[in-house]
Write a structure and sequence with these properties.
The protein is mainly beta. It is elongated, with a radius of gyration of 26 Å.
Length: 458
């Protein structure tokens, strides 16, 4: 929102009112400043800054930008609309927990808020949160470093139209959690790594968690790695978790060396976790990485992903099994490439509406856990024979087992060579493609491509 008086003209004095007078034009801005050396009785100007972010949150008008000068600040709450809080250019402003307040930055019952370029760290309270956003809309969280919080990095609770993008989240128990309601949420291009703290059995070593959210929510273009517990005989953690949540899209992410890729589950009432879309993701194992635990995933689509060398399984499938099990009726697993590890682990009878077909699998044997097998089926056991798996289950009638011929698998370039059997071999889904049919896997074949330099970003 622009201020009412965008420009102010300073009149000349009587002595300088001749024909050569050029009026001085200054821009009246809506910018305020905070500094550890400031005072909350000041005006908030560049030369007389406020001392605390809370003073700015309480006093700055809607439409204001508040710059935090270099230094360390405490917690604050925003409940007024139209404010931007940002680090002053080329300076580092740090928000740190005080050991008592649960949320370092609380945004509640408001709208049009931006948090940009800050470091939010060291909230060591149990379930402590770096940024907590509740009952708010039109919020942007961009280009922040959120680290070393005992509970959560960022929590979104009952929000609408919130974008969390280009942030780095590390050393939290749970990097991002989306709770309840929460429509129009975009989690985009974040670096989510080494979140290995534990606060309870459900919030430990987690990248991104969807908890009773109804969406739609999208996680796109994020890189997630090394999200897992440490020094535990039964490791936990995941890149993504979905608990009794619906309408979640996870697409175009790069995922490696977490405990699991995606774990789904539900509550005692068997609240559905449904309409999950997991597409165009790249998943590989460097030192550890299990696949997707799909125990609650009704009417969901897992398609056009590429998986390389995963431990134990790529797809662990069950229907109403155990405490966290729900329905996977209507689940479709289509057009994926999975190589160098056991692909299927089917632990119960599955509904007739589950479709597993047109995937390209290839396992000549690998050093992954259970990497000597291709599939496990309850009541049958393990097999490395794709034809035998088909006969046991009637799945994959059009599936195939060939080397997909990646451009440079060693360097994580999973584009397809010109002679790849995955080209034009996919089932037609509701998305654009080149050629006579979609290609199987993450990438559509392109004659001229650049390598994907994943190892340069670790």
């Amino acid at each position: 929102m622009l201020p009412i008086a965008l420009f102010q003209v300073i009149p000349a004095s009587a002595e300088s009112s001749g024909p050569n007078f050029i009026p001085i034009v200054t821009k009246k801005t809506n910018v305020f400043y905070i500094s550890p050396a400031g005072d909350d009785s000041n005006s908030g100007s560049y030369n007389t800054p406020w001392k605390t972010p809370q003073q700015a949150a309480d006093q700055a008008p809607s439409g204001a930008t508040i710059y935090l000068r270099a230094g360390t600040y405490g917690y604050f709450t925003i409940n007024r609309p139209g404010l931007t809080f940002a680090s002053y250019p080329n300076e580092s402003a740090i928000l740190t927990g005080d050991g008592q307040e649960q949320h370092t930055i609380m945004i509640r019952d408001t709208s049009e808020i931006t948090i940009q370029g800050l470091t939010i760290q060291d909230n060591l309270v149990d379930y402590g949160t770096g940024i907590h956003i509740e009952n708010s809309q039109d919020i942007v969280i961009r280009n922040n470093l959120v680290r070393a919080n005992q509970g959560f990095g960022i929590v979104l609770k009952n929000v609408t139209n919130v974008t969390v993008e280009d942030n780095e989240l590390t050393d939290n128990a749970n990097a991002i959690e989306v709770r309840y309601g929460s429509a129009g949420v975009m989690l985009r291009n974040n670096l989510v790594h080494h979140n290995q703290r534990e606060v309870d059995s459900g919030r430990a070593a987690m990248g991104i968690n969807f908890y009773y959210s109804t969406g739609p929510v999208t996680a796109q273009g994020n890189w997630l790695w090394e999200n897992h517990t440490i020094n535990r005989p039964d490791p936990g953690g995941a890149a993504f978790e979905i608990y009794a949540a619906t309408n979640v899209t996870i697409t175009g992410n790069v995922i490696w060396d977490n405990e699991t890729v995606l774990e789904t589950g539900t509550d005692e009432e068997k609240t559905p976790c449904s309409n999950i879309t997991f597409t165009r993701n790249m998943v590989f194992r460097g030192t550890r990485q299990q696949g997707l635990i799909l125990r609650c995933a009704a009417d969901s689509l897992i398609a056009h992903n590429t998986f390389d060398g995963l431990d134990n399984y790529v797809f662990s499938l069950s229907h109403f099994k155990g405490e966290y099990g729900g329905s996977i009726a209507g689940l479709r697993i289509i057009n994926n490439i999975a190589v160098n590890g056991r692909v299927y682990m089917i632990e119960t009878d599955l509904p007739d509406s589950v479709e597993i077909d047109n995937n390209l699998v290839y396992n000549p044997g690998s050093d992954a856990e259970y990497g000597e097998y291709l599939a496990y089926v309850e009541d049958f056991g393990n097999t490395n024979d794709f034809t035998e798996f088909k006969s046991w289950t009637a799945y994959e009638p059009d599936g195939r087992s060939f080397d997909p011929l990646f451009v440079d698998q060693t360097n994580r370039d999973y584009h397809l060579q010109e002679s790849s059997p995955a080209i034009d071999a996919g089932m037609i889904l509701d998305e654009p493609y080149q050629g006579s049919a979609p290609d199987i896997g993450m990438y559509e074949y392109e004659p001229s491509i650049l390598k994907f330099p994943i190892d340069n970003f670790r």
